[in-house]
Amino acid sequence: MICFRTLVLAGVLALSAAEPAAAAESVGMYSNYVANDGLVHDRAFDTAPADSLDEVVKQLTRAIDRLARYRVPKDPPNVYRVPHAELENYVCGTHCSIKAWYKPGDGIFLDDTLNPEANLFHRSILLHEMVHYFQDRAGEYGNMQPCDRWFHREIDAYTIQNRYLAMIGHPSRVAYVGDNCNNMEAKARESGRAQAFDGIRGRVNPDQH
User: Fold this and answer.
1) Which of 43, 121, 146, 148 lies 20 to 30 Å from 20 when distance is taken between CA atoms?
2) What's the 3-state SS for the chain?
3) What mean pLDDT do residues 19-25 have?
């Protein structure tokens, strides 16, 4: 189970979660264009406000299809809006700055303060979680140990998220700044604490760092 956190949570840093006014107002990319063959094609990197969350999911599916190597799953992920306190309780077990979470078999859970329909950085957060859904459906990194699989899936999702932010002309970038699995295990041995990655929820406990 994978989490994406904005600001500092569990070794994850989102460098700028605020939506710059210029980016929010940009509508320079449109949802459709007509090619030389006369067919109408959907734009994957539309920056205009969307009418619904379903529309955003469809658009981000097209974006991931262009930015990553994964095949598009037959069915889109379920996306749920939930109160921040509920995310904290279920994923962190304490107060934390989690904003979204992908749970295999269930779907994507978004903090209900996020507005991916209008806020482009929030849209990139949803894309990050959708990458995890694509990974899950493709069985990506399935032969790795749980911690290594989680680590590589996160690095992949952050890379694709940054590609997306660059494509839509957004100034923000995100980065994974936590340790890899070997370092986490070494710190756990030195401190006498349990390994921060629990292998079940696929998260790092911020209190362990």
Assistant:
1) 43
2) CEEEECCCECCEEECCCCCCHHHHHCCCCCCEEECCCCCEEECCCCCCCCCCHHHHHHHHHHHHHHHCCCCCCCCCCCEEEECHHHHHHHHHCCCCCEEEEEECCCEEEEECCCCCCCCHHHHHHHHHHHHHHHHHHHCCCCCCCHHHHHHHHHHHHHHHHHHHHHHCCCCCCEEECCCCHHHHHHHHHHHCCCCCCCCCCCCCCHHHC
3) 38
